[in-house]
């Protein structure tokens, strides 16, 4: 498939993802309490952690390893990775979910939170299942299938939420997580049916796939865990400090940026397999050229959108959010700065993954997470809840600088090798 067609399908997919996330957020803003929205935000953060761990141990190692293999061997490798993921993450999620449910039921005597813990565990497993099929089809240059997976998910989750609203269910935070789980299982099933991965395998295939994943992903796993701590730090600090309503307000402001925030992810999902192929073929000039071109496009679109939304923030807040969230202007500014910083380092992060430089990625993430942890509490004390978002921005700037330095070292090594070979 031609690159332009792939990018169009990928952007259409990211529009679908953005609209879905926006719809879920607006559902909570208009039809649920701030308390419910805060709890759902915590749940979604934990689900994102699961996906991040899957990305570190399964998806990224699968990409950088399988992309260099021929078609038959690549398919066999990916099938083994899928089964390994289902076995390992299914077991881990079951143990963690059951343990949390037990603690809430018999120690804290809170049956509602016990059920909520199990719901998060089920939703995490479902999200990992769906995400694997998305990443595999991106790697196989089938963005149309990915678009279909996310479209099915969107239709399912929005339909279920509509039914919940129509039936006037309470405890929306719990039912929304269960709706997410059901939709992810259905969408993942559609992706599996279209993938061609349903086939019996030898036990050795799974063992070899796991060994390869761990060798490539152990450092990445640490980086993902640290990144999650950094990105979710603001939420837990606000909840611990008794500002759960501020968490809802912060996430409501973030909704205004949700249509553009997945842009870099969508483009890079298409570009990463191509960059990995360039690297496997030794075409370093093409690799860096394509990466830089995509980054310039993404940053231009992002800055234009952010400027439009912020300059018209009063209109957007009035149209999209309710009166309870009318004081979200400062949160919107803070999130805009964070989003620009996050996007600025996406290109560098992807290139380091393509070169399998997972250790520098983890070290850079560790430094930025430390910055966030230190500054979050201080900024909240002096600037209020919005300080938690600004602290995240400081961490992103630290991460951007560290990754740029790490990539510079990689380029210097490549130049030295080229000089020796020349």
Structure description:
By secondary structure, this protein is an all-alpha fold. The protein has one domain (3-421). Helix content is 87%, strand content 0%. The protein is built from 15 helices and no strands. It has helices at 3-31, 34-66, 71-107, 111-139, 143-166, 172-195, 203-240, 244-255, 263-281, 284-311, 313-320, 329-344, 346-354, 358-383, 386-421. Helix 1 packs parallel to helix 5 (143-166), helix 9 (263-281) packs parallel to helix 13 (346-354) and helix 13 crosses helix 15. It is globular. The protein starts with a helix and ends with a helix. The model has no long low-confidence stretch (mean pLDDT 79).
Classify the secondary structure makeup into a structural class: mainly alpha
Helix % is: over 70%
Strand coverage percent: under 5%
Largest sheet: none
Number of strands: 0
What overall form do the CA principal axes indicate? globular
Unreliable stretches (pLDDT < 50, length at least 5) are: none
Can you write the helix and strand succession as a string? HHHHHHHHHHHHHHH
The radius of gyration computed from the alpha-carbon positions, rounded to a whole number of angstroms, is: 21 Å
Quickly count the helices. Answer: 15
> What number of structural domains do the residues give?
1
- From the N-terminal CA to the C-terminal CA, the straight-line distance is 35 Å
Mean pLDDT value: 79
Oligomer description: single chain
Per-chain topology:
Elements: H1 3-31, H2 34-66, H3 71-107, H4 111-139, H5 143-166, H6 172-195, H7 203-240, H8 244-255, H9 263-281, H10 284-311, H11 313-320, H12 329-344, H13 346-354, H14 358-383, H15 386-421
Helix pairs in contact: 1-5, 1-8, 1-9, 2-3, 2-4, 2-6, 2-7, 2-8, 3-4, 3-7, 4-5, 4-6, 5-6, 7-14, 7-15, 8-12, 9-10, 9-13, 10-12, 12-15, 13-15, 14-15
